[in-house]
Amino acid sequence: xxxxHAVVIGGSLSGLLAARVLTGHFDRVxxxxxxxxxxxxxxxxGTSQSRHLHVLWTRGLELMEELFPGLERMLLDAGAAEIGVxxxxxxxxxxxxxxxxxxxxxxxxxxPLLDWAVxxxxxxDAASGPATxxxxxxxxxxxxxxxxxxxxxxxxxTGEPIAADLVVDATGRGSRAPAWLAGLGYPExxxxxxxxxxxxxxxxxxxxxxxDPDWKAxxxxxxxxxxxxxxxxxxxxxxxxxxxLSGAGRDYGPTGEAAFLDFAKGLRDPVLYEAIRHAExxxxxxxxxRTANHRRHYERLPxxxxxxxxxxxxxxxxxxxxxxxxxxxxxxxxxLDRCLREAADDMERRVQRRVARSGAGAWLIATxxxxxxRETEAAPTRLSTRLINAYVDRVVATANVDRRVCASLLxxxxxxxxxxxxxAPAVLARVTAxxxxxxxxxxxxxxxxxxxxxxxxxxxxxxxxxxxxxxRRELARRRLPRRLDALGHLVHRGxxxxxxxxxxxxxxxxxxxxxxxxPCLVDLDLRGVPLGxxxxxxxxxxxDHLGVFARTELLFQ
Length: 557
Description:
Blueprint: E1 5-9, H1 13-22, E2 28-32, E3 55-56, H2 58-67, H3 71-77, E4 81-86, E5 89-93, E6 96-97, E7 102-108, H4 111-127, E8 132-136, E9 141-147, E10 150-156, E11 161-163, E12 166-169, H5 177-183, E13 191-194, E14 199-206, E15 217-220, E16 229-236, E17 240-247, H6 257-265, H7 271-276, E18 280-281, E19 286-288, E20 293-296, E21 308-310, E22 316-317, H8 325-342, H9 347-358, H10 360-370, H11 383-399, H12 403-413, H13 425-439, H14 446-456, H15 460-469, H16 472-492, H17 496-509, H18 519-524, H19 539-554
Parallel strand pairs: 1-2, 1-12, 2-8, 5-15, 12-21
Antiparallel strand pairs: 3-7, 4-7, 5-6, 9-10, 10-11, 13-20, 14-17, 14-18, 14-19, 15-16, 16-17, 20-22
Helix pairs in contact: 1-4, 1-8, 2-8, 8-9, 11-12, 11-13, 13-16, 16-17
């Protein structure tokens, strides 16, 4: 491939990050945008979701900082808020309130602020670098220029052709790439859609003078399928809050004045309503309902054209409520950079495969949660998906009270770790032990507990007789905490290969016969993919560990 000219279609965040990568590999880069970019941090029509809550998790922030050194400082100086998670957040999860451990952090800001900062750095860096960057605003690409079954450029709305060695489609959910590929003779990609029928309503408020609670942000999650409403209240630049209310199953966040406050009052806790009911509104209430998870599987096509790649929401778009789209855009941009550095003959095809992997973790998180709503429009939920969700429920509950599990969960939510890391033995041990401790708490009143305590004081012979009389499942239940704690300790110390295998073997022997959990690998899209930890745990171990969890759950039926 020649490296003379590259074209990026779309000035979205994904398009801006792709343009930054391409300036390091091509002599000239042209970015074509349908809108006109505002002079500062202002809203524009092309980013319809920009008036709602945005957060940038640690992985996305780290990668953007690699692409634009000093970007974080630029955002903070412009008023972006840095929030410790969950230390600074009053967070009501589906399993209750989360303890406010000091684990990680994120940045929160208005979307126009981030777009302005990235655009500014992109143009400044290009001006001082070897590549030429051209911004074609108020223009639109209407088609590709073919050369056989490959791509040699784009055609503008004005009829003007632009030749290019590489074309990047970053036009978002409305991408016309499937039709363009069909015009070149390629089949349309398979698509997956999971729609929770969720709608947002958001408004800016002035933070009241003298308002000084013990939190910086509020996040009240739904508890599906019992409840469908979620609310977030986060600080942004300019001394203001952004309040976003959402509801799934067509219980949309309302845009009427009274209805908005009533909706906030109907959340699982009134703390958000109490915070905003006397605050000064700074904007109208804005709604947004394009929240379906939508994945185009370009990586599955049998062939792919040279000179063309698709990125960002044009490949995989997520329910925005989970705040992972911007981080996935950064991960995909880095994947593009690595493929260009490798300079393989099938570079474009490699990009599509790596972009698909870049969004796989976020897809699993978003769709796994959205499938909990009864009204969600999607393919029927498989048994393996329900099993995974049952385990994630246990992880969330344990993370509320266990800092180490909380850190593992937040690493996954921040896309710093793969979802499969939640099934590693060290996490599994703590999650299952927490479940067992909770289920083994003595029931009944004080008199009954005193009676049981007296029985425990019996001599050794009495204990042995009672042990022999216990059913096998009860014996397994009593031994599980020690077995799991030992397994987790050995894994944590890096000694799981031998002694850990013996402990795990003894654990499995006490939990009835194993059963097939192979379909879980299909759900996790992890066939042959390692878990990503430094001990090289693989997908076979994932099935084994998930099986231990499932069999443990059977003890409590």
